[in-house]
Amino acid sequence: METEVRLAERFDADRGHLRAVAYRMLGSLDEADDAVQETWLRASRTDIGEIANVTGWLTTIIGRICLDMLRARRRRGEEFTAEPLAATASGAGPEEEAVLAESVGLALLVVLDTLGPAERVAFVLHDLFAVPFTDVAAILERSPVAAKKLASRARGRVRGAPAVPPADLMRQREVVGAFLAASRAGDLEALLAVLAPDVVRRTDRVAPGGEAEVRGARRIAEETLTNTARARVAALALVDGEIGLVVAPRGRLLLVLRPKVDGDRVTFVDVIGDPARLRGLRIASPPGRDIENSR
């Protein structure tokens, strides 16, 4: 009875940590909560009297559960999920998950969703939660060397490789960041200031009554202001080595915007929504704070 009480107390103390680990591995709050509940069911069948590091032991259990869930998801062909915006960003989905996704980093969640199950588990546990590779290896049933290679490969995917010099990348980030900030704020004048007068917007996902191509700063700015819900679930990302935007309600990729920057203005915006095209993009976290703020 004493060990059961001790386990319950420790589990309650570690619940937030376990939920955070599971959310980053699964990208879904509902699934993360299911994983936490399954962790409790498995842990409660064990006598913890001889376990020195209960938190580490619980983390190992939830790591194995998440790995199984990721593998099952992949077998069902669910590794890529482009979800309708209305189903995920306007009240149908839990508000808490939207807030959590933003705090983790929308771009990071999108990138994690492109990793294989073993890569994702190795990266999240080691790089984001400092779990030793010996423990990661036990979860993956591989050697520590193999676990290190998986994490290294995932790290490379998450960080990406810029295709332009650092100065150009910084300028792109400033301009595209200003475009995103103006879009979120609904600031028409700020949008006009960052868009070139002859800017062109093209999309492969035309809404009913919409146009595949729109020209001119004012038309594009006004159109942008009709999509503030998308701006709220957009984030900077590295797209094929340059700064772009991912529109990812609750971390689920919906659209990618690839702006072209000339000087301090956006001259062209390619809006990509076709699933085949989205799968062909190399998306990574932008240089900066995304990974550092993801724990």
From TrEMBL:
Keyword Transcription included in the entry's annotation: yes
Statement: the UniProt record of this protein carries the keyword Transit peptide: no
Annotated RNA polymerase sigma factor 70 region 4 type domain residues: 107-156
Domain annotation RNA polymerase sigma-70 region: ranges: 15-76
Key words, A-Z: Sigma factor, Transcription, Transcription regulation
Record family assignment: Belongs to the sigma-70 factor family. ECF subfamily.
Assembly notes: Interacts transiently with the RNA polymerase catalytic core formed by RpoA, RpoB, RpoC and RpoZ (2 alpha, 1 beta, 1 beta' and 1 omega subunit) to form the RNA polymerase holoenzyme that can initiate transcription.
The organism's taxonomic lineage, starting at the top: Bacteria, Bacillati, Actinomycetota, Actinomycetes, Streptosporangiales
One Pfam family recorded for the sequence: Sigma70_r2
This protein's name: Sigma-70 family RNA polymerase sigma factor
Organism: Actinoallomurus oryzae
Domain of life: Bacteria
